[in-house]
Design goal:
Strand order of the largest sheet: 8-7-6-9-5-10-11-12-13-14-15
CATH architecture of the largest domain: 3-Layer(aba) Sandwich
Strand content: 15-25%
Shape: globular
Number of domains: 3
Helix content: 25-40%
CATH topology of the largest domain: UDP-N-acetylmuramoyl-L-alanine:D-glutamate ligase
InterPro entries: Mur-like_cat_sf, Mur_ligase_C, Mur_ligase_C_dom_sf, Mur_ligase_cen
Protein name: Cyanophycin synthetase
Number of helices: 21
CATH superfamily of the largest domain: Mur-like, catalytic domain
Pfam families: Mur_ligase_C (PF02875), Mur_ligase_M (PF08245)
Oligomer: single chain
Radius of gyration: 26 Å
Organism: Kribbella sancticallisti
Distance between the termini: 74 Å
Length: about 550
């Protein structure tokens, strides 16, 4: 028998639908959506929904009708099972035949049984004994063994949760570094692994709930910093019941078309989950220059700490009027603002190595976010200053804006995994290019990026650089043929008049080709995801040296003059 069930997913913590553990059902309602209106109306009436208008077959109106019907089914079965009031969220998807229904759970066995019962009633479309079926499945749910409670962790140490499209890894690393400067034993999780006091504990992508569990399980941990990615929230929910500080760096197009998230607004909904579970006495740290991020403060129980590079930003005025705080750049200093006290300068932006002498606007924002989070935790001002001033791009932030001097030109290694990240990389390349120098760029993308994003990166790269090649990420193609990615990249580069775009099987080989072409004053950049370690090793074997803050400052000044 065909079933309407596409997926039943148990979410262990806060998620897109609820601020607690929930069950998410993805349903294919083709039978209901494509049924003649009288049959659809008869089905709703048999379930106790008399006054309904199904709308035209396959229409948006019919999908909205199905949203109402499915929500009613969940509540009817819950009543029959003795559950009483139950929270229900039903969301339409871009495919008019699909819906997502979610409800919170306290015991997994009974929750799974309720999910199965919902599917059984939906599958019974056209049946004549629906009331009896609802009653019988309700009894079955009532008698199902309760099962285990949610495994959501209730931390006993302060937790900072960091999310965003760009900058979340850098910001979480900065916060952890500041925590260590304050003398704390710090654990943090990210897309690169789990770290404890600067040492790698476990390698891999731990930006989901398992990362939080790994961090909080470290003996003696005093502060947990968790990078929280979109995928983990959608697949399993947030791993902790609450956090003390939430940080959202920004929201831009990335990973769209995956997991039912098709728009930037929907992506912002996912990112906002961490702000909704911030403790009321904590702080919700948001980017005041990103409207979607700034709006997240409204649904957070915590106070708002906004950051912006513009001290006259309306977002800063609004938050200060609301009794919150702000971190900005004032007269070249990273500065904290509060209505009840004088502006408090921390340190000059140019003294924060990660900002590349103030050249990297994204990293200025990341520094502002990290300072806000650390101060929101109650860490000492001196620790914030020490942490920001000693956080080195190469040593403390591998793979993000790492810069090398090779003979008489510069090489940059950076993740730059989406359009905004690539634009930030080009900003840096231009900022250190000597007069007459060229920009040589190795493009690349994982295989799960949408075609329009890959093509856009091709156009951005070809427009901004003097020479572009493609360096594939073989470990991250995710089943997509490299030739297909090449075609999409070249479609983008051709749209701006660039057709000569060779490809290489790895990031390393692409880098070797561009370094071989580089001349005095040029800047070579590689969008690197998988070959960072081998790139570093090869560059050093070629005599490359890692740029220290003084070298970077000299390059920026030389480029400006």
């Amino acid at each position: 028998m065909l079933t309407s069930l596409v997926e039943l997913r148990v979410l262990d913590g806060a998620n897109l639908y609820f601020s607690r553990a929930a069950v998410k059902l993805t349903l294919d309602l083709t039978a209901l959506i494509d049924a003649p209106a009288p049959a659809a109306k008869a089905y709703a009436s048999a379930l106790g929904l008399g006054a309904t208008r199904p709308g035209r077959i396959g229409s948006g109106f019919r999908q909205r009708f199905a949203v109402r019907v499915v929500g009613h089914i969940v509540r009817r079965i819950a009543r029959e099972a003795g559950i009483g009031r139950i929270g229900v969220r039903v969301r339409s998807e871009s495919d008019v035949h699909r819906l997502v229904v979610a409800f919170p759970w306290a015991h997994e066995g009974r929750a799974r049984a309720l999910g199965a019962a919902i599917v059984e009633v939906v599958d019974a479309f056209g049946s004549e004994d629906l009331p009896d079926l609802v009653s019988s499945v309700g009894d079955r749910v009532r008698n199902e063994p309760a099962g285990d409670p949610p495994p959501t962790l209730r931390p006993k140490v302060p937790v900072v949760a960091v999310t965003g499209t760009n900058g979340k890894t850098t910001t979480s690393r900065m916060i952890a570094h500041i925590g260590r400067a304050a003398g704390l034993h710090v654990g943090w999780s990210s897309t690169d692994g789990v770290y404890y006091d600067g040492e790698l504990v476990k390698y891999g992508d731990f930006s989901g709930p398992s990362g939080a569990g790994q961090v909080l399980s470290q003996p003696g941990v005093q502060l947990a910093v968790t990078e929280t990615a979109r995928g983990g929230i959608l697949r399993r929910g947030v791993g902790v019941a609450y956090n003390d500080v939430s940080v959202v760096t920004n929201v831009t197009a990335d990973h769209l078309g995956l997991g039912g998230i098709d728009t930037v607004d929907q992506l912002a909904e996912v990112k906002a989950v961490i702000t909704k579970i911030t403790r009321p006495r904590g702080w919700c740290v948001v980017n005041g220059d990103d409207p979607r991020t700034f709006a997240m403060r409204l649904d957070s129980p915590a106070k708002c700490w906004v950051f912006s590079r513009d001290p006259d930003s309306p977002s800063i005025r609004a938050v200060l009027d609301e009794g919150g705080r702000a971190t900005t750049v004032l007269d070249g200093f990273i500065t904290v603002l509060d209505q009840s006290s004088d502006a408090e300068p921390l340190l000059k932006v140019v003294d924060v190595p990660m900002t590349l002498s103030g050249l990297s606007h994204y990293n200025v924002e990341n520094a502002l976010a990290a300072a806000s989070a650390a101060l929101g935790l109650g860490l000492p001002r001196n620790a914030v200053i020490e942490g920001l001033s000693t956080f080195s791009p190469a040593e403390n932030n591998p793979g993000r804006m790492n810069m090398y001097s090779v003979r008489d030109f510069t090489v940059v290694i950076d993740l730059a995994h989406n359009e905004a990240g690539l634009e930030a990389l080009l900003e840096i390349m231009n900022g250190v290019r000597q007069p007459g120098g060229r920009l040589l760029l190795a493009l690349g993308s994982p295989g799960d990026r949408a075609d329009d994003m890959v093509a856009a990166m091709g156009a951005i790269g070809a427009r901004g650089a003097d020479r572009v090649v493609i360096g594939h990420k073989g470990d991250y193609l995710r089943g997509r043929p490299p030739e297909e990615l090449e075609a999409v990249f070249r479609e983008g580069t051709s749209s701006v008049g660039v057709d000569d775009v060779p490809s290489y099987p790895t990031e390393l080989e692409a880098a070797k080709a561009l370094v071989g072409e580089a001349e005095a004053g040029d800047v070579v950049a590689v969008m690197s995801l998988q070959d960072r370690a081998s790139l570093d090793e090869w560059l050093r074997s070629e005599g490359a040296t890692v740029d220290n803050p003084e070298t970077l400052k000299a390059k920026v000044e030389r480029a400006q003059h």
